[in-house]
Specification:
Jelly Rolls; 4-stranded antiparallel beta sheet; mainly beta; 156 residues; 6-stranded antiparallel beta sheet
Length: 156
């Protein structure tokens, strides 16, 4: 990837990769993290697995476009299963979580705004090992640093 100010063109499988537990994140592009811009990732969630605890972003928006598999989004007491071709938008201030449903991995494009939110995703990857539960106090402290409150457990 070239630096900000240049066009970015990435092919399939290209980008900066990291893990969050068993999930894989491929950063496709991001404006500088201090900017009002956005970040784009390709996310692959492990089959039949919960996502993060229920949480609310006070300063970020996120949206997802589901490419493969199925993701169940929970927000404000509602839920919806989104399959390939579905679009989900979570504005700031909306408590939400998700889980991958079904026997196959789910893959989606995630867009986060502002770009600073990418730091939360990257740092979360360092806190969540694939082989054991994360330290919940460290996760809560990380979320707080990024203006995000944990409001409940992950979806089951």
């Amino acid at each position: 990837m070239s630096g900000f100010g240049s066009a970015i063109a990435l092919g399939p499988g290209e980008g900066r990769a990291f893990s969050i537990g068993g999930d894989r994140v491929l950063v496709k592009g991001s404006t500088p993290q201090g900017s009002d811009g956005f970040s784009v990732v390709e996310y692959v969630g492990v089959a039949d697995s919960p996502g993060p605890p229920m949480h609310v972003h006070r300063a970020f928006e996120e949206c997802w476009f589901i490419l493969d598999g199925a993701v169940e989004l929970h927000w404000n007491g509602e839920s919806r299963i989104a399959s390939a071709g579905s679009f989900l938008l979570v504005p700031r201030g909306v408590a939400h979580t998700f889980r991958v449903t079904g026997p196959v991995a789910a893959r989606w494009v995630g867009i986060f705004s502002p770009a600073r939110y990418m730091g939360l995703i990257e740092e979360l990857g360092a806190l969540i090992p694939a082989d054991r539960p994360p330290d919940q106090e460290k996760v809560a402290a990380l979320f707080a640093r990024y203006d995000t409150d944990i409001t409940g457990p992950p979806a089951q």
